[in-house]
Write the structure tokens for this entry.
Amino acid sequence: MLPHRSLQPSRPGEEPPPLRTLAPWLRETFGRPVHRVALDAGSTCPNRDGSRGRGGCTYCDVEGSGTGALKSGQDLAQQLAAGLERIARRRKRSQGPVGAIAYLQSYTNTYVESERLREVLAVLEPYLEREVVCVSVATRPDCLSDEALEELSRLARRVAVWVELGLEAADDAVLLAANRLHTVAEFEDAVRRAHGAKLAVIGHAILGLPGDGPEGAARTASVLARTRCEGVKVHHLMILRRTQLAAQWQRGEIEPLTLETYITYLADFVEHLGPEQVLHRLTGDSPPEALLAPHWGVHKNAVREALLDELARRGTRQGSRCPRRSEPDPG
């Protein structure tokens, strides 16, 4: 395994690290290690149930890029309790306090009636400001109603709240081909509205979607930077079983990125982000039995190290190619 290069926040007078990554930021912000608890609240999506389309995003499996825990018979309260127990065991090993991010991951979690969203958030209530220091809600840009923003804004008075919004690619034609069925403009509007509700936004991007070539990484990062998403998640396109992309890949219509190409795209991507944005994820993973391609055979730490090497080779860093911005925050 490659050695870990330090990405801790710099001391006064020191050169800042080339990437602003999540773990140091969490420790700095919450004063302790913080870990996610992934939760499945039983939501669905507008491009699955027919209100916008059918079949879901072409790359998304039947679990909605989540755990599928609810289908296994484990209700939300049980999922949360089990996740907090796992974190409690980490606390024993670390000999110190550990916090939790309650991550409503599967499908589109604000694509529900207001009453259902309140019911879901009520499950978290006993743990707020204690074990749970943050609530992260995955959703779509076209599913963020005023009522949902009001509920999440109320919650944000007690704990940190992140709205995780999928942009994926800053090209409407690429989004249509991936069956996302929302637009870049809808993403930009959703970020503006979330910021208006005093909520933090984590923007999602996928590099290597069909039709999104080398220039796509820079274009997508530029939109994430311009909209001032506080955090960013990025990963390569993965071909998973039980997806529409699986059939296209089997017919030879899609060629996933090689590791070397992904690192090139990723370096372009982080150079165009804002230097203040926190990188929550630099690559994706999948259960081995679900992944068809690509098979790189490396740990995620190796991806990070390869990215750092590429940035060092270029003499660049996160934000190097992001225009300096003096205009006020649109939120």
Observations:
- The two ends are 43 Å apart (CA to CA).
